Amino acid sequence: MDQATKSAETLRRQIAATEEELSRLREQLAVIENEEVQNLKGLSLEEGPVTRKWPLELEEYKRYGRQMIVPNIGIQGQLRLKAASVLIVGAGGLGCPAAAYIAGAGVGTIGIVDGDVVETSNLHRQILHSTAKVGMKKVDSAISFLTSLNPNLRYIAHTEHLTPQNAREIVEKYDLVLDCTDHPTSRYLISDICVLLHKPLISASALRTDGQLIILNSPPLPAGDASGGPCYRCVFPKPPPAESVVSCGDGGILGPVVGTMGVLQALEAVKLITAGKLRAAEGEKAAEASMLLFSANSNPPFRSVRLRARRPKCFACSAEGGLTLESLSSGSLDYVLFCGVTAPVKILRPEERIEASEYEKIMEERKGKEHLLVDVREKVQFDICSIKGSINVPFSTVQGSRALAPQGEKPPWIPESLAPDAPIYFVCRLGNDSQVVARKLKESGLDKEGRYIGDIKDGLKAWKEQVDSSWPEY
Amino acid sequence: MESEETLPIVVEFTGGLEMLFSDERKHRLSVPARDSKGDAVTVGWLVDYLCEEIMKDNRKEMFVLDGHVRPGILVLINDADWELEGEASYALQPNDNILFVSTLHGG
Ligand SMILES: [Zn+2]
């Protein structure tokens, strides 16, 4: 290792250590800020009159006045909000706006569950977090924001992910649950525990420019009672294949889109609480279940569709279902197994793959002429950054066969000037799609003249690590 | 005898499914009113028709798995869950709107 690399390494280590220290300090600060607020609340209570003339504090009339004078809310609605407790699972793009409006509205007790820490890539949509809170636990960051927004409420931090083992203990203390998570495993788990503990559930999700919202298990009648609202399993008895599940990190997400869905969750929570619908009324039957679809680019952007009622053979909410609190908390229900995991893509053999650093050497030796580097990311990503000399053939066009020529013919994107034995390398973000495309090209007979076709292992992630640290990772 | 009669319908895709159908969310189609056996066409028939005639993408398994619409896709007939309408056996009517929604999971 030369001197420059060594000192860079030392600096990197120092930065990492300082960042760790920073995040520890921020967490300490959040805890102290929280305590300060709790103390303030204690003081104002002690100083207040022993018997009060009005059911709310004077400050609360001012704070909630504008919503209390809305018909359907009124003083009764406000008192219901104050007495209610809401659990928000996930402090991300849905949970942040939902929590802000729920705290603003004066819901007396708010719990937030999340095991993640704030990252820079969260900030365009997760509005409770801020640049200074990167590295801090999301739950602590959220509660510190909410506390300054509305110090009159009780906030409960659950700084871990919801699991079958802790779900009962966490969820049973609350009246209403909001699913603001981002994966099918948590969606099934949250729905199951809500059915078991008779909690209504407001579930939302978003990706790219689309969002979906459903109110489940409302009224929250016991399993087997057909008058209860359907659960997540009634609507989706089988999970989608793992390969079809796209995350916000892979598919992208617009802040205002997921924000819209989170705000709608808060609205539905306020409606449910102020209408006194946290528990089923005597003889109450579920209203027709519906799902609200939002598509930012459609006209009209909102569409409500009618869903089925409880499924007579639902695993969770029917009398015949096998779901019990014991089976859930003992871990005998494996949600990860149920939803499946995507196996790491292993399509190419080791000799069909090269390291990013190896490709850099090839690039220098061949001066970019006698080989071809094909970047199979979507065009929108290729436009953000690309390796010099590479061409773009998006994965989706290969899937649609549009980029593949008939058997034995050369695809149009291969330059005429490229020698028939010049190697072709594929690259993508992480080294999965590049394998799929390389294999397809080989199957179409493009390597029959002895040309090498392979991909760059671990894709552009490895390019940044091994070759170009200035590569803009997005 | 093969009938020439056709049915005008609207088929829509959302939640990412549009990517399998040339990135078009809304397809105005004119489909045969009778199948090869001369029976009135159903939504089940439409699913096969979409796979064979309309989908350009290779990833059929993202739409149909083991002969059924894959788990995680809701089928809505005129804005109602197809389970309320007889599922795959529902006979298509003129101007029906059939919406395929892939569930989203992001948050
Ligand atoms: Zn159910």
Structure description:
The complex is a heterodimer of chains A (474) and B (107). Chain A has 2 domains: 84-339, NAD(P)-binding Rossmann-like Domain (Rossmann fold); 350-466, Oxidized Rhodanese, domain 1 (3-Layer(aba) Sandwich). Chain A is built from 17 helices and 13 strands. Chain A has helices at residues 3-47, 58-68, 74-83, 95-105, 138-149, 167-171, 184-197, 232-235, 248-251, 255-274, 325-329, 335-339, 356-366, 379-382, 395-399, 433-443, 459-466, and strands at residues 85-89, 109-113, 154-158, 176-179, 201-207, 210-216, 290-295, 302-306, 353-354, 372-375, 391-392, 424-427, 453-456. Chain A has an 8-stranded mixed beta sheet, sandwiched between helices. A 5-stranded parallel beta sheet of chain A has the order 9-13-12-10-11. In chain A, strand 10, helix 14 (379-382) and strand 11 form a beta-alpha-beta unit. In chain A, helix 1 runs parallel beside helix 5. Chain A starts with a helix and ends in an 8-residue tail after the last helix. Chain B is built from 1 helix and 7 strands; from the N terminus they run E-E-H-E-E-E-E-E. A 5-stranded mixed beta sheet of chain B has the order 2-1-7-5-6, with no helix packed on it. A two-stranded antiparallel sheet of chain B has the order 3-4. Chain B has 107 residues and is mainly β. Helices cover 11% and strands 31% of the residues of chain B. Classes of the chains: A alpha/beta (474), B mainly beta (107). The A-B interface holds A 90, 92-95, 180-184, 187, 204-208, 210-212, 235-241, 243-248, 251, 253, 258, 291, 293, 295, 298, 303-308, 396, 399-402 and B 14-16, 19, 22, 25, 56-59, 61-62, 65, 70-74, 76, 79-81, 83-84, 99, 101-107. The structure holds zinc ion. Zinc ion binds at residues 230-231, 233-234, 310-311, 314, 316-317 of chain A. Chain A: This is Adenylyltransferase and sulfurtransferase uba4. Chain A: In the N-terminal section; belongs to the HesA/MoeB/ThiF family. UBA4 subfamily. Chain A: Residues 367-472 form the Rhodanese domain.
